[in-house]
Write a structure and sequence with these properties.
Layout lengths: L1 E4 L2 H12 L8 H7 E9 L5 E9 L6 E8 L19 H6 L2 E6 L28 H15 L3 E10 L1 H9 L7 E7 L12 E2 L2 E2 L1 H11 L22 H8 L4 H7 L4 H8 L5 H4 L13 E7 L6 H14 L5 E6 L13 E2 L2 E2 L4 H19 L9 E5 L4 E5 L8 E7 L5 E2 L11 E6 L25 H4 L5 E4 L7 E15 L5 E9 L19 E10 L18 E4 L2 E8 L4 E7 L27 E6 L7 E7 L2
């Protein structure tokens, strides 16, 4: 049920009010003047000690809540006289007054123990040796309550990305003092659709870039980053990864099998027990704190994680306070900057500033300080296209109508299904692994965040991309919730990827609010949502199976939610392709463990996408009545 729509005028009034709040900018000297820092080793139940930095307000006129952040990315700077230049989720928290605690997770940086990427959660624990991130969080909170002075007995947690995973894991079997937790862009499932894999396809540029800087092993507690970040030698990521060739060459040329988790990824090319154990979603139970999950519609890394953590927390903890916030942001974009634009697309408001002042701080203040009423609804979500915040009592909205956009001959796209079986009843293209479809039209080192809204005209003009679009829309149409492609396809190979992109096509003469023509956005093909399905996983991520060459097969999958209005005068477009490079590694067209593929395994293949009454292809969407 829709509670209310925030109009542009209302947003202007909200921002005017927000601007009147005096803000003290954070900086190194301000933090040192107002906080005392100490460094402590906190013992866990198995005797391992975790390095922890504590920033306590010098003003002791009142008791303060504790804000805890656990991270694999270092709590630097190290040294009791070396201070962070900012503390808390935003400068507003330092002005408000909290005790801030930062902790190196087990086996990273200055903490003892052994690090395990996405350490599996143990539902059953028989003794102190059975540890996971939930127990480490519990033991940390218990120690803080007993040893930190001047706290009010309440603890909050937050974290973005990997620290978001530690927040989600930490709220399982919640410590009684944990009253508020905010997993933000949390990693949740590294094979389904977070970070390194999407539906079994490998995000080569993102994975290579991240592990090259963060994946080297720690051999002892140390404040020094292990390994040496790699220099690609060029800013042209498309050419670099094309020259790299098969994924196996990353080890042979750069990592030299010295990177433990990369080696493990190469050994597990399906969602087997290794990956299933690293899926936090089924374990999000016994959550007793209030939860606010935050994500960005244009988060190229963990859009899936935010939505999955919210949904699984909701499903597995009936009656819990569990809310969702989704804005027009890239990965972590709500914590920095204004949030008023991405690439060529503008949002007409400083959305990140609004979130920090009117959502994030009030959430923690309410549950940790009993300050202010809790006015946040179940879902606070930004509607792109019309650029407005909207609020719902559930997400996706209960009023959604499930419909399908069908592919037709002559590049047509319509809500009407095919009514006949005309010859040939399909479109086809040749996918050449030596000439993959570029992710963007520009030169970038790898996975640029802005690709989530980038112009797709460069792809539409290629012969290995199929394009379908509606007539010009006579009225606005709002799509919300997940997208569900259902394709009837065939390939001359035994495996192939299928990429489906939903696109907002702007009018040829596109004016801005002042009536001036914005030439860059005339005929712009804005990516709204895009996703890949590695064909061999079309029926199961844990049991790959080949295609029968030339035989039609169904490829169906779910794409993470969107909330976008296609305006009157625009068109809805769907593009289908088999490469998206260097975002996705290249499928050789051969059924095999692609991590073991050599240059000889790659081949050209011909793909057909059918659009007849007997073999229809469509994209399922949720339409929100206006």
């Amino acid at each position: 049920m829709l509670l209310r729509r925030v109009s542009r005028l209302a947003l202007i009034l909200v921002f005017a009010t927000a601007a009147a709040i005096p803000l003290q900018p954070q900086g190194l000297e301000q933090v040192k003047a107002r906080y005392t820092k100490q460094e402590i080793y906190v013992p866990m139940r198995d005797g391992v000690r975790l390095f922890t930095s504590i920033y306590t307000p010098k003003d002791r006129s009142t008791a303060y809540p504790i804000m805890l952040s656990r991270t694999p990315y270092s709590v630097a700077p190290y040294g009791s006289d070396q201070y962070r230049s900012s503390v808390g989720p935003s400068p507003l928290f330092a002005d408000e007054g909290y005790i801030f605690v930062y902790q190196d997770v087990r086996g990273r940086w200055m903490s003892e123990g052994t690090f395990d990427d996405m350490r599996p959660h143990r539902d059953r624990k028989s003794g102190p040796a059975d540890i996971d991130e939930s127990t480490d969080t519990h033991d940390t909170i218990e120690w803080l309550l007993q040893h930190v002075d001047n706290h009010n007995g309440r603890v909050g947690m937050w974290g973005i990305s990997y620290p978001g995973f530690y927040t989600a894991a930490g709220m399982i079997d919640s410590h009684p003092a944990l009253k508020a937790a905010s997993p933000q862009a949390p990693v949740s499932d590294w094979f389904s659709a977070d970070d390194w894999h999407h539906n079994g396809a490998f995000l080569i540029a993102h994975a290579f870039g991240w592990f090259a800087g963060n994946g080297w092993p720690f051999t002892r507690p140390s404040p020094e980053r292990p390994g040496t970040p790699l220099d690609l030698g060029t800013n042209d990521g498309y050419q670099f990864y094309l020259n790299l060739g098969p994924v196996r060459n990353a080890n042979e040329r750069y990592f030299k099998r010295e990177m433990p988790f990369w080696n493990q990824m190469m050994e597990h090319d399906a969602k087997d027990a290794f990956w299933q154990a690293r899926n936090i979603n089924p374990h999000l139970r016994n959550v007793r704190s209030a939860v606010m999950t935050v994500g960005g519609w244009y988060d190229a890394e963990n859009l899936y994680g935010a939505l999955a953590v919210y949904r699984n927390t909701e499903r597995q903890n009936p009656g819990a306070t569990n809310i969702l916030v989704m804005g027009p942001w890239v990965h972590g974009g709500w914590a920095r900057g204004n949030g008023d634009a991405l690439g060529d697309v503008r949002f007409d408001a400083n959305t990140a500033e609004w979130y920090r002042q009117h959502v994030e701080l009030p959430f923690f203040n309410h549950y940790l300080k009993d300050k202010g009423p809790m006015r946040l609804p179940e879902a606070t979500v930004f509607e792109t296209g019309t650029n407005q915040w909207r609020q719902f009592t559930e997400w996706p909205p209960a009023t959604l109508q499930t419909r399908s956009l069908y592919l037709h001959a002559n590049s047509r796209l319509s809500f009407d299904p095919p009514s006949a079986d005309p010859a040939p009843g399909y479109d086809e293209y040749v996918s050449d692994p030596t000439r993959p479809v570029p992710l963007t039209s520009g030169i970038h080192r790898g996975m640029e965040q802005r690709y989530m809204v980038d112009d797709q005209r460069h792809a539409a003009r290629r012969t290995d991309v199929l394009v379908y679009q509606t007539d010009v829309l006579a009225d606005d149409i709002t799509l919300a919730g997940p997208m569900r492609p259902s394709l009837s396809v065939s390939t001359t190979g035994t495996d192939q990827d299928f990429v489906v992109k939903l696109i907002d096509v702007y009018p040829s003469r596109y004016p801005d609010a002042d009536g001036h023509l914005l030439n860059p956005l005339g005929d712009y093909q804005q990516l709204v949502r895009g996703e890949v399905m590695r064909g061999k996983f079309r029926n199961s991520l844990d049991r790959p199976e080949p295609f029968d060459p030339g035989k039609p097969a169904k490829v169906e999958f779910e794409v993470s939610d969107l909330f976008h209005t296609f305006r009157r005068g625009h068109r809805i477009m769907v593009q289908i392709q088999s490469t998206w490079f260097p975002l996705i590694d290249i499928n050789p067209g051969t059924f095999m463990n692609i991590y073991q593929a050599t240059e000889a395994d790659f081949q050209k293949t011909t793909e057909r996408v059918y659009h007849s009454r007997t073999l229809p292809s469509s994209v399922g969407v949720g339409v929100l009545p206006r």
